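Database export, one record per block. Field names are fixed; values are copied verbatim from the stored entry.
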Amino acid sequence: MGSCFLQTIRSILLVFISLSLFCLNQVFCPDAAFADKIRVLIIDQKYPSIPGKDEQLKKIGNNTKNTPLANGVYYTGQIEIWKGKNRLYVINEIPLEDYVKDVVIAEAGKSWEMEAIKAQAVVARTYAVYHKKAKEHSCYHLTSSVLHQAYKGNSPNARIAYAVEKTSGEILTFNGKPIEALYHSTCGGKTEVPENVFGKSYPYLVSVESSCESSPYWVWERNIQMSEIEKGLNISGIKEIGIISYTSTGRINELEINTESEQITLRATELRRLLGWQRVPSTNFSMIRDGDSIIFKGKGHGHGVGLCQWSTLEMAKKGKNYREILSFFYPGTEIQLHKE
């Protein structure tokens, strides 16, 4: 276990012990006070010395507000430690609007155009509400990583707070229900449809052409050693990597990998996951063999579905307001006030 995680656990446990707030073996059960809150998994760490069978998680403590964790990070709301089979989970329960402020700070630039920040606030809030409804009986609703949406604890900023307050409670709906407001960093000129990435479709998530040339990921290049690729894919003796098919938006769908002993078909999204999301920023790329490495040349960053954050910034600079921006990326949706 890393020293950072141990420091985090020790600091939390010391507070718990001093406050005598241990409550062992309580099964999580939402109450009325939980209604306007989001539960975020902030640490999920293997801990082999914890005994126990594969069973429902048990809450082993909760904490008071504004407790600093490792590396000086502060979290608004309550901190809880749960245990599972050979694991410890640290969960932050936080009021929804406070969570939205912290997500927007992590996901968007603090100096971005105000209408772009407002759009990000509505999308982040909608995404949280959608996943809370989907996992209402789970011990947490979202993770703090970009696999859901980035959340790095409490970091107050006046401009972000203003944008969140001006859109307070607003979410995107389709037929009266919160949408899965997927979004990403940089589309590379055209957004992707969800069925090409997640295997499911939504009427409000369609491919649109959108400029995002100000993004540092508008175009990118990576030179990746063949040994790194083999290690990431857990195979050896790669002779050739070729493209089998493209998606309807021009991104790579499937790849064919020929080794000394087998032929493997791999989805480009899986290649990204195995090599690292930053190593291969998107599936919109070409490949050139260069000795013992492959040069990837591509456009965009992220899965490409839904709102493009850098396009949002450019649209705001051209005078579009947040409602116009959201209508463009999520056609057919409405903005409504969220009610529990």
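Remark 1: Residues 220-298 form one domain.
Remark 2: Confidence is low (pLDDT under 50) at residues 12-33.
End of record.
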